[in-house]
Amino acid sequence: MAVKLTPYLVMNGNASEAIAFYERALDAKVLFKQTFGELPENAGLSFPAETKDRILHASIQIGESTLMLSDTSPDQSVQPGNQMAICLSTHDKEQSQRFFEALQQDGTVRMPLQETFFSPAYGILTDKFGITWQIHTEGQHK
Questions:
Q1: 3-class SS letters over 116-129
Q2: Residue 49: helix, strand or coil by DSSP?
Q3: How many Å apart are CA 88 and CA 100, to the nearest integer?
Q4: Contact 33, 65 (CB under 8 A)
Q5: Which domain holds residue 121?
Q6: Same structural domain, 12 and 37
Q7: Which residues pair with 7 in a beta bridge?
Q8: Are residues 48 and 102 in the same domain?
Q9: Is residue 141 domain-resident?
Q10: Which residues contact 67 (CB under 8 A, 6 or more apart)?
Q11: How would you classify residue 130: left for phi > 0, otherwise alpha for psi between -120 and 50, otherwise beta?
């Protein structure tokens, strides 16, 4: 069973600044970075024009560890308790489904587990302890 846990930081419009800071301060290397403006047109999502330079998703390597980051869209805000999540990644949709169903017990689903342009099964929930989880299935999708 290949399961990977990665810290995921949600920034309030300053993820690019944070990435540059971590590059300098921690010798971080950018593995992936995509802005809202670079979102594929067939993704079925739309965001206000002022978000085009915000980070939709980024992944940086610090030593042997990976850290993921993104910005909120202007209609969302960062508050204590939602600035950090744990991204749980698998290669198996059924395993992702089991994890999602188990973690949602007495919790709150923020985005149902579903196929997205970047994952065959991705969802977000907050468990009964107030911990936000992003369940991400790696691999091919439509």
A1: CCCCCCEEEEECCC
A2: helix
A3: 10
A4: no
A5: 89-136
A6: yes
A7: 86
A8: no
A9: no
A10: 6, 7, 8, 9, 22, 28, 59, 60, 61
A11: left
Whether residue 61 is found in the same domain as residue 17: yes
- Domain end among 82, 104, 122: 82
Domain assignment present for residue 12? The answer is: yes
- Identity at 11, one-letter amino acid code: M
What is the per-residue pLDDT across 55-71, written as a single tens digit (0 to 9) for each? 999 999 998 999 999 99
Do 117 and 61 share a domain, yes or no? no
Instruction: Give every strand in the sheet of 55-62, ordered side by side.
Output: 29-35, 55-62, 65-71, 4-11, 84-90, 132-137, 122-126, 108-114
Total number of domains in the chain = 2
Length of the chain as a residue count? 142
Res. 141 pLDDT band, cuts 50 70 90: low
Determine contact, residues 86/24, Cβ cutoff 8 Å. Answer: no
pTM of this structure: 0.76
